[in-house]
Every structure is written in structure tokens, then in C-alpha cells.
Amino acid sequence: MSQLDKLDGEILNILQHDSTIVVKDIAEKIGLSKTPTSERIKRMEMDSTILKYVALINREKVGLSLLVYCNIVLKEQSKKALMSFESAVLKMPEILEVISISGTYDYMLKIVAKDINAYNDFVVNVISNIPNIGQYHSNIVLKEVKRETAYKI
Known about the structure:
This protein has helices at 6-17, 23-30, 34-46, 79-90, 116-125; strands at residues 66-74, 95-100, 107-113, 133-140. By secondary structure, it is α+β, with helices and mostly antiparallel strands.
């Protein structure tokens, strides 16, 4: 992987705010011609600096009004147990993010649901049935004060 320079950073900042912008417009904004700008973008895609392009959706507009951060403590910490848990939660579309964390909890899950009843059903019938879960603690999001996906580069 090559080192990112100032122009790469500018390209990434532009794409993070609007991934539909055409290369010609990016090139104009950063002061390069279209071909080297396109080559820079392709290089960053090839070296996985740019992972993918997505549309950010208003979850409430698609019927997912509840957002929950669920902290998990596993009973056992062996590599096999961790991998088994990770494999199980990766298959669940309700879970948007799974992060392994230090401290009191082993994992934090970001989960969306239609409402509190749907979330309760998910916890009782799905989460609680994953082998090796010792405890789970749900944190219901009351309000998103800041929701950003772009990294400052």
C-alpha cells in the first residue's frame, strides 16, 4: 500500500461527502486533469483505501425506528468461542456493526429494529440463543446527536 498524499486526501474527502460525483468534477476541485485523478481513485480502490460506495439511508423512512447498542459478555474467551460468536452474528441483518472491545464487555453490537417489540423478539428469540453468551445489556438510542460516516483526512 502506498502512502497517501495531500491530493489523495482531498479526493477521499470529496468522495466521502458525495460518492456520485464524476471524476471530471473531482479533478477540477483538486486541480488535476481527469486521467491522473481517475488513476488515483483506481489505486485507492485497488489497495482497499476505498472499500465501497454506498447510499446512506434514513432508517426511520424505511421502518427501522429503533436503534440499539447491545453490549455482550461471553462466558468463554477461547479463540474458538470468539470465532463461533462472530460467525453467528455476521449472518444477522438486524445487526449493522459488530466490534470487539476492551473493558467490561467483549463485543458491542449496533442493532436496528422496527420498534421495541421487534427488538425484544430479536433478543429473546435470536441473541439469547447464541451459544456462549453470558450477559447482554441493551442501550436504546433516544436521539442521534451526531451521525457522521466521513473520516477527516
